Amino acid sequence: xxxxxxxxxxxxxxxxxxxxxxxxxxxxxxxxxxxxxxxxxxxxxxxxxxxxxxxxxxxxxxxxx
Length: 65
Hints:
Helix content is 66%, strand content 9%. It has 65 residues and is mostly helical. The N and C termini lie far apart (35 Å).
């Protein structure tokens, strides 16, 4: 399945957070803004956001101020 443009952008930021094992509050806010910018969160974006939330919850990625 081909990723939407919004999902591609989210994937890049999430992959950076995975590599760094951390994400700033500003980056997190940007991800949420990117996902909701068009007024619709598609299935790909929703899956990426769920993946990010799971990694933050299990502390694979640390949310920093």
